[in-house]
Amino acid sequence: MSSSKKSSDGKSSEIEEAVASLTMPFNKILLTSSDGESFEIDEAVARKFQIIAHMIEDDCAGKAIPIDNVTGDILSKIIEYAKKHVVEPDEDEDEEAKKKLDSWDAKFVEKLDLETIFKIILAANYLNFEGLLGFASQTVADYIKDKTPEEVREIFNIENDFTPEEEEAIRKENAWTFNG
Amino acid sequence: MTLRSLILEMRSRPHRVVHDLAAAAAAADSTPGSSQDYRWSDIPEELLREILIRVEAADGGGWPSRRSVVACAGVCRGWRLLVNETVAVPEISSKLTFPISLKQPGPRDSLVQCFIKRNRITQSYHLYLGLTNSLTDDGKFLLAACKLKHTTCTDYIISLRSDDMSRRSQAYVGKVRSNFLGTKFTVFDGNLLPSTGAAKLRKSRSSNPAKVSPKVPLGSYPVAHITYELNVLGSRGPRKMQCVMDTIPTNAMESQGVASEPSEFPFLGTRSTFSRSQSKPLRCSSSHLKETPLVLSNKTPRWHEQLRCWCLNFHGRVTVASVKNFQLVAAAAASGGGGTGLSPERQNERIILQFGKVGKDMFTMDYGYPISAFQAFAICLSSFETRIACE
């Protein structure tokens, strides 16, 4: 992860980092999005992002970490999810907790449009946050379920680049597929 | 400003700090994609793959959810290639996905369970993939066949569509031709040769680079020969059935054996990159196969003294006694079946195709490696047609 130096109010970010190390509680980490939003989170939450976990292991995580590839609105959503999933309940041992979490997950994603989910997938991949990446991928798979090719193209704004002959052949393939 | 006052100032700020607008604008410009429109067509391949894998796994990978997999293959070229890489052939997955799956060998360790509905009025037969254990539930439609009588022979035309039985249609899959007496049958495969257009869809880094043959006119090629005979007991005993599978070598039965499989229908761009065989055109006569063709014969029923009837164990899949019922196994390995690691008895025991009656016009059909759904269906149709041992 590159550490681009942004200046603000004439103070260098090196000083900010040093200050953060002095002022932050021991197990907190400060993440800064590409558009300058900062989020203070527990180390345990930050560790859900493998990319940060590795930095912590390798002892090269400062207390303030810039996340250059993710904007604040997306990062805040990712952190919200991470906070809820710091401890994953065991389905066998605590069915109740798992159900509650699944319900929270469903509500969480219900409010998101496809554009946001797309950005979350890219960001979760960048941060190496496997749990959210899997969940977001499944959400998209659910969008696709039971749709025709035309509907999928419509939803995902994808261009049809088949030749007319290929298109005709695929139409016949689909006739068999969607027939009974 | 002292360091102490600096620290105090930092502490008093709220947690979510937004820098001044200039810095934010500079940041936005320097980070790629943050202010651009998102485009699903730009999604990295490995992330799209993760999504498609989950589409394929929906509801255990069965129908009707599996429609979504085929739908994804029809979205655009990029998606089609990825879907083909994700979906395994029936031999490996036991799952039928695209129409081409009907011409690919079934699974090695299990049987695909299907059922056939007969319509006596229209003289047609419809093959369905069973989706549940109950035969009263709808299945996934696979193939339709209808009878066409000629002066000296009878044809069963097999099609992907029940409403389109023309031999010139692209839905035409093949046919079964019976001789006058109904004792010998030939199975013809209607479309075996790939067209050049479809080949272009393959990626250059595919492990199976396209060997494209120039566009060849479609033909109908014999792929199997079936014969029925009375056994020594005449019409009082079960009939003898033999199927010579012209396109499947005997060594396909070995653990490393390969049943040759077609790569695609002419009008489809799908090609499984898991196919281990080359895309050679399947010109099928036994002389063309380097190996001897595989021969299947029906398992001999045992005579049940107390019940006074011939019995085969259909494992619950056949419930009505009928002379049409049969189980096919690889014929006794007289032609050097060594090297399989299996004793001749065990080798012989493995059921490759099982067919039998469960209701007035309902039959089950279970098939497995090395034959395909199409070949299985064709063999079953011959069982309907033959008049051997029917009194």
UniProtKB/TrEMBL annotation, chain B:
Residues 102-386 form the Tubby C-terminal domain. One of its GO terms (biological process) is regulation of DNA-templated transcription. It holds the Pfam family F-box. It comes from the Eukaryota. InterPro entries: F-box-like_dom_sf, F-box_dom, Tubby-like_C, Tubby_C, Tubby_C_CS. Residues 40-84 form the F-box domain. One of its GO terms (cellular component) is plasma membrane. Belongs to the TUB family. This is Tubby-like F-box protein.
